[in-house]
Amino acid sequence: MKLPTREELEKRYSEYSDSQLMDILKHGKDYQSLAVDVIREMAEQRGLSCTEDMFSSFSVAKKRLFPLFNNTEVKDKMFYSLMRILYLFTIIPVVFTILSYARDDKNKFLIWGALSVGWILSIVFLTKYKSKFWVILLYFLYLCFVAFGVMSFDVVFSLTKINLAIYIIAFLIMLYVLSYVFVLLCRKK
């Protein structure tokens, strides 16, 4: 498919109304960069205000490990999406707590139960207060989950390479989620 030239774009967009041009600029990420450049020039020629602030609510910072959003509404949506992932992760320690109880292993039951309750309460307080303290506590609890899980079940010695890779990937994903929440809270200002 052949992309239109600058001249073709100028001809096409010259017939657009001011509001149509501004709407395209607001959704510039959905258009090719040449089209956005042409429309910006046309908007400036028509005396329309097209500052960078206008695009800030729709833009994401350059590609980063932790994308940062300029719009507080989008930041909040990302924060609550990450919180849902943390709540979903709660299933794992709760299942281990139940399994320990079913096996009548009181020590493991108490440890898994305490870790589960601590995790759930930390997430609830993090959601309510949005404090970095709770994220740091979640880091600590997560590392306790992993360490206690490895010690309890001797998982490392019975794993194949592919299973070990899956566990490592899952471990890193949860670390990423916790780190992303921490970054969002640090850059909240």
Give a short summary of the structure.
The protein has 189 residues and is an all-alpha fold.
Account of the protein in words:
By secondary structure, the protein is an all-alpha fold. The chain folds into two domains: 51 residues, no CATH class; 115 residues, no CATH class. The protein is built from nine helices and no strands. The longest helix has 26 residues. The radius of gyration is 25 Å and the shape is elongated.
Number of domains: 2
Q: What are the low-pLDDT stretches, counting only 5+ consecutive residues below 50?
A: 55-62
Number of helices: 9
**What class do helices, strands and sheet pairing give?**
mainly alpha
Helix content: over 70%
Global geometry: elongated
Strand content: under 5%
Number of strands: 0
Task: List the keywords.
189 residues, mainly alpha, 9 helices, 73% helix
Per-chain topology:
Layout: H1 6-14, H2 18-26, H3 33-45, H4 52-56, H5 72-89, H6 91-102, H7 106-129, H8 132-153, H9 161-186
Helix pairs in contact: 1-3, 2-3, 5-9, 6-7, 7-8, 8-9
